[in-house]
Sequence to fold (663 residues):
Amino acid sequence: MAVVEEKELLRVEQLCINFKTEDGGHIQAVKQLNLTIKEGETLALVGESGCGKSVTSLSLMRLIPKNAGFTEGKIMFEGKDLNHVSEREMRSIRGNSMSMIFQEPMTSLNPVHKIGKQIGEVIYLHSSLSKSEIKEKTIEMLKKVGIPRAEKIMDEYPHQLSGGMRQRVMIAMAMACTPKLLIADEPTTALDVTIQAQILELMNELKQDYHTAILLITHDLGVVAEMADRVMVMYYGQIVEQADVRTLLKSPKHPYTNGLLKSVPDMDDESDKPLVPIMGNVPNLGVIQAGCPFYARCPQAFQKCHLDNPPLFKVGEQAVRCWLYESQEVIA
Amino acid sequence: MRDALLDVKELKVYFPVGSGLFRRHSHFVKAVDDISFQVKKGETLGIVGESGCGKSTMGRSILRLIEPTSGSVQFKGHEVTALTKSELRRLRRDIQIVFQDPYASLNPQLTIESILGEALSTHQIGNSAKERKEMVAELLQNVGLSPRHAGRYPHEFSGGQRQRIGIARAIAVNPALIIADEPVSALDVSVQAQILNLFQHLKNTYELTYIFIAHDLSVVKHVSDRIGVMYLGKMVELAGKKQLFQRPLHPYTQALMSAIPSLDPDVKKERIILKGDVPSPIAPPKGCYFHPRCQYRMEVCEHLKPPEIEVEPGHFVSCHLYDAKATVTEK
Fold:
């Protein structure tokens, strides 16, 4: 099969996200992060709570309030540096060529507006369609995301729908202007597994139909295996490992990735052997420490890990932030 | 099963919805609808189901934290539903519960020592404050914390550590049975594994019996000996872990298993995607509750509730597909 080299859609260079603290200082939630997404590709950003995966996605949309924090670095989207476009231009990008769905659809839908109005608003803002055309398009989108009796749902409020239905509405809204990039922040975490299966299938279908790139943010490695082309594992605001999905799940190199995979009970495993958890807890971002942030929890840590934070090393096609691979070439 | 520690028969918990004239309740949510099962001493019974299936209500009604509407719950041969208030307190020493949210289930104004000490003094365990203090230190050690944590408050701990405290409180009174209601679903993956291992370790140390309630089938599979699958207040399938996973019989169990994403990217699962959502428990469908979403739906399913059939020894399923194997007719 000939692989056509896809065009690069998003390139993030040296992204740092800092939040101000009460005592006038700041903490760094994301540290020198680089990532690229090609058109039509699904990149998964994986990590546990507080690792910086959600703020990364918010910063791509420039949704982090200016008074809360400040970001540094370059975010190139379709050739434009998003940190230097006007707010007006940013608004035309959001929802149009880049859109987002969130974990909890109830809190991200407006409870006092009808479903039809909320989806119609997106189309109204980003197109010059007439009122009746907008309505037609809205119904078409609702049908596209598998909502039965779409005409009636138009006139219902978010609270009248189930969690799975609400997430479908969110997806319909996000896909209404056929964005180039869809950012999905834990899109199925609040849903039951049978509903999760429906939503994941829907996202894959839409991706095929519209050739949309997806930045998938999740803590669930099963969802990653299902959806992603490439994976980046985050820990303490840094990328610790990066690889294509097969390589990452089959031969994880970073002790943290390895630990995560061993912590999940395997459905296909018949033996009752105990899980191998990662010791300790996810570190608090406020605590500044020298050395590798995973040092204290790492079963393979040695002297050097305590002193210096490792750079990313190139191990085959993978990138790994770990001193175990010190002999390899440094990427960043 | 003669050596049953807990014997639940035809348990029902109905909640009235709205009220008509003279407070006559016209509708009920049948949160737990006619469930029977037994738990043997030393085993772990896993209960799995999606949100709203009644699994938590069932767990709580065993302890009478929610009063059952009807049915019988026998613990060590005593009828729980007939106990007086003081007898109930004694029962709650034997059956303890661990909740999902360790943030919400610990009093933020008490130190860990007082939280655990309270459990001990309520049940008159330990003769003096000094003795209790020693017991608290030992408990903390047994759940993987340090005795020097005793003077701290809940907010000073991480989620995983708080769940350890919740577990320490449960085992403090030496219970025979622990009902764990989604004990790991609020935790990060790496911490979740620690807590699951702790449950396993304590089971061996204290000779505990568990009812382990969770929505995550892979977690339930990991800890359980037998597993019950619930759907809309009903137990649709109950079997030994091996039986259930090698040969899931109920179409809902099959769909639930196929819905879980595999960690192996090379495994392309034959996925059964269920249509629609779980129906509202206020107005459940006629006949089999699962029939509107079932891919093997037959005509009989629309009218008649399926009986519980023991397809092979210890493997119960409520589904008309297995009617031919029924030795018992409609219950």
Observations:
- Residues 193-210 of chain A form the longest helix (18 residues).
- The first strand of chain A starts at residue 8 and ends at 20.
- Chain A touches chain B at residues 48-49, 148, 162, 164-165, 192-198, 200-201, 219-223, 225-226, 245-246, 249-250, 259-268, 272, 274-279, 281-282 (CB under 8 Å).
- DSSP finds twelve helices and 13 strands in chain A.
